[in-house]
Amino acid sequence: MAASMRQALYPSGAKDDPRDADLLLDILLQHRDKLRRWVPDTEATRRVQNLVEERRKLVDEKTEQTNRLTSHLKIYFPQILDWFKRLDTELVCAFLLRWPTLEQLQKVPPTQLRTFFRKHHCRDQEVIERRILAIRQAIPAIRDRAVIEAKSTVVKVIVRVIGSLLEGIADLDEKIEEAAAAHPDFFIFNSLPGAGAVLAPRLLAAFGSQRERYGSAGEVQAYSGIAPVMERSGKKKWVHCRIACPKFLRQSFHEWAGHSIARSVWARSYYQQLRSRGKGHHAAVRALAFKWIRILFRCWKDRVAYDESRYLATLARRGSPLAAVHVAIVGKSV
Q1: Domain extent at residue 17
Q2: Would you state the pLDDT for residue 334?
Q3: Which pick of 104, 138, 152, 243 has the fewest CB atoms within 10 Å?
Q4: Minimal CA–CA distance to 78: which of 152, 154, 128, 140?
Q5: pLDDT reading at 332 higher than 60
């Protein structure tokens, strides 16, 4: 806010700390009604908030390193991408640490490979035999030893980093589970369809425990970035996704709404309606998140768990088309 005022009042671009201090004082004295006093949340809530945010940072780092690993493997060892669905697992990390090149891998006897897979919790015998056969039939992507040596060395470093990140994420998962279970409001968010062990604590962190912080669900929708922004100029009007918002908070609501489609009857019906009208996937998920926030806000304010059957009954009583779709689905299943 101070930076915007400085740009408006001093367009030359000049900046100095005393002038910025004067701007902050003007904001405080002249626009006090636009400001809200910050009050820290409870220790239990802040513990969950910090843990889930740090976990997300590690997950993002793991994704970055996994993408880097993929790009290296595509150059000299692309078969790994076909043999394993995911690279960010303990099995793949141990596999590449032991045999970082196809040449080394093809020298290993099948019995040793079977022992390795079983040791790393791969029990599907059909999958093991299919991998062993593919290893025997594999043809090197390149034979340039200079490239293979450099890439395989870096790959071993990357998988060590991914392994450390996996351990850190698992450790944070345990702490998050403990901290969330001890929070008095966790039962509200744990009752939400599609929330699960990861998103329920993130939703708890998003709302916090200060009921007086938000006066309405609209404030949560706007602050989180789920509510769209409307711009008008003359006779023109357009609506777009909100840019200035806490990205982690918006991501939490967006991801949860996406997961709820498979777990909630009305959410799936609403999403399908939006898609049939030409809405894109993410636009439909944001619209669904917009509706979910209103429901969750009321549960949070009243300190009650979410009840799908109760909400469907409310939709039917109000004559909502979503309730009609639900009745049709139930009738077909019967």
Answers
A1: 2-34
A2: 37
A3: 243
A4: 140
A5: no
